[in-house]
Amino acid sequence: MSGAGPESLIFEKSLPGHRGADFPAAGVAPTACGDRAAALGVPADDVALLLPGVALREEPPRLPEVAELQVVRHYTRLSQLNYSVDTGFYPLGSCTMKYNPKLHDEMAALPGFAALHPYQAEDEVQGLLCLLYELEQALVEITGLKRASLQPAAGAHGELAGILMIKAYHRDHGGAGRDTVIVPDSAHGTNLASAAMAGYRVIEIPSSTRGLIDLAALRAGLSERTAALMLTNPNTLGLFEEDILEISSLAHEAGALCYYDGANLNAVMGKARPGDMGMDVVHLNLHKTFSTPHGGGGPGAGPVVAGAKLEPYLPVPLVRRSEPDGTFGFDYDRPLSIGRVKGFYGNVGVMVRAFAYILRMGSDGLTRAGEDAVLNANYLRVRLRDWYDVPYDGPCMHEFVMSAAKQARQGCTARDIAKRLLDFGIHPPTVYFPLIVSEALMVEPTETEDILSLDRFVEVMEQIDREICSDPETVRQAPHTTPVRRPDETQAARHPVLRWSPQP
Ligand SMILES: *Cc1c(COP(=O)(O)O)cnc(C)c1O
Questions:
Q1: Can you give the residue range of the structural domain that contains 328?
Q2: Which of 360, 389, 414 marks a domain boundary?
Q3: Which of 78, 262, 281, 328 could form an SS bridge with 129, CB 3.0 to 4.6 Å?
Q4: Site to substitute for ligand 1 among 261, 265, 282, most atoms within 8 A of C-beta
Q5: Are residues 233 and 277 in the same domain?
Q6: 249 SS3 class
Q7: Distance between Cα 156 and ligand 1 center (Å)
Q8: H or E segment at 250?
Q9: How far is the CA of 476 from the centre of ligand 1 (A)?
Q10: Quick check: 65 and 21 in contact, CB under 8 A?
């Protein structure tokens, strides 16, 4: 990014007459002696015979006129404007922007996976079906639940599938009047949205002073109208819910089911299982915890894993293994299923990457990854808390939340600090989330960073804090080195310009 001068920002490269491809002129007759260019030539007189008039353009298409070298430079330059975990530290809390080994991409690109067609007969895709089956087994083992559907295309999609399963369960068990989902105020925004999309009323319960679910508030919120409690553990403050068993018991006693947002499973993987915490259904983000690169809008996968009560409601089809011959196939014969939630079987390439990751790590490796994620987050928390407030301080899991409230009083907000980090080639943490921390900076270093990059982040954060005292204007005006300074984020989100069109 830092190398991008104004020259490289010129997007329109077209110049009349510049060409990246050559076609032989029409009307050149093929020659007998094998002149290839001429042999490919279109006989001028025959064009009208070969193509019907409606298919003929009256004017040439308005395409950019650029030579091959300019095209290569254009796209290579654009790819370099993009910040990525392959170019630098990316501590974006709740997003798990860890390094994803390239081997997993190579596995997904193997022709035996990548060149399959979704309409191929089951007996031609036994290898892939076996992989999907074994991936399901692995996710069931990791979560301590019963069965999984790999279909949902994202975390939020898995949430919606899980909540619809809960709804179907209550409908069949005399709970049709249950119209409410309880969500802690530290929840990820998608939780409330998924519950509302499934037609539920959402009740938010406040966190305790320690940043955990407040048992008294939970008791007060639960009633015969509660369909589910939706929680994230560790929660978005990076704290493990110590009372999780009591929490799930209270929900079950009230006749509600427990939904576990397992988008970021790093911290507990191999150590604790949602199924053992009393959870009825979980979604996982394969594109966060299980090594699919993400952040560019997809594709992802948000498998939904269910315990005994909800397993019959999983989306169809599931992958079945027939005994005794051990062949694999799709099982549609599941009368209580909520139905399909995705075309074909979801984003299979993501599943191949996740399977490669799980095999390569093994159960010891997954546990170690979780331990390192927690160690790295705690290292940063302890080193940074002398400069930035950590409101819910104490051992954290894979992430923690700082507050820039003190710096804001000195005139530089969390947003300014985030922008200033860009000048040092560091992706900012998540800012202003969770909402219960003012001027929040949510840091998730992930297990793949070494101590050198953690130390550098600490040094840069210290330097920014010093600048806020000595030279606040530099921080308020940041970033200074990026190709785009401070875009209008609302406009960019509401009216994104995603395709090129010719200038009038
Ligand atoms: C990322 C995330 C989600 C949503 O996942 P998407 O794949 O972006 O839909 C849900 N919950 C938590 C806690 C997350 O971090």
A1: 103-360
A2: 360
A3: 328
A4: 261
A5: yes
A6: helix
A7: 6
A8: helix 244-253
A9: 30
A10: no
Q: Which range is least confidently modeled, 34-38, 217-221, 498-502?
A: 34-38
Q: Lowest mean pLDDT of 9-23, 276-290, 464-478, name the range.
A: 9-23
351 Cα–ligand 1 center, Å = 17
Residue 24: inside a domain: no
The C-alpha torsion from 350 through 354 and 359 to 361, rounded to 10°, is 140
Contact at 8 Å (CB) between 318 and 149?
Answer: yes
Same domain as 283, residue 415: no
Q: 284, 285, 290, 294: which to mutate for ligand 1, most atoms within 8 A of CB?
A: 285
Residues 201 and 276 in one domain: yes
List the structure tokens of 90.
């990316």
Q: Using the 3D structure, point to which of 305, 332, 360 is the last residue of a domain.
A: 360
Cβ contacts of 133 within 8 Å, gap of 6 or more: 319, 321, 328
What's the CA-to-centroid distance between 314 and ligand 1, angstroms? Answer: 20
Q: Quick one: which of 480, 487, 390 has its CA closest to 429?
A: 390
- Which residue's alpha carbon is at the smallest distance from atom 4 of ligand 1? 155
CA 199 to chain centre: 25
Residue type, 446: T
Domain co-membership, 353 together with 387: no
Distance (Å) of CA 94 to CA 98, 265, 279, 296, 413: 11, 10, 21, 16, 21
Question: How far, in Å, from the CA of 158 to the mean position of ligand 1?
Answer: 9
Measured distance CA(402)–CA(45) in Å, rounded: 74
Give the helix/strand (H/E) hosting 402: strand 400-403
For the stretch 307-338, pLDDT in tens is 999 999 999 999 999 999 999 999 999 999 99
The predicted structure's pLDDT at residue 45: 62
Element (H, E) at 322: strand 318-322
Question: Ligand 1, closest atom to CA 190?
Answer: 10
Which atom belonging to ligand 1 lies closest to the Cα atom of 94?
Answer: 15
The residue type found at 212 is L
Residue 191 and residue 218 in one domain: yes
pLDDT of residue 55: 81
The verdict on 242 and 118 lying in the same domain is yes
Distance 386 CA to ligand 1 centre (A): 30
Per the structure, how many domains does the chain have? 2
Note whether 246 and 381 are same-domain residues. no
pLDDT at 417: 98
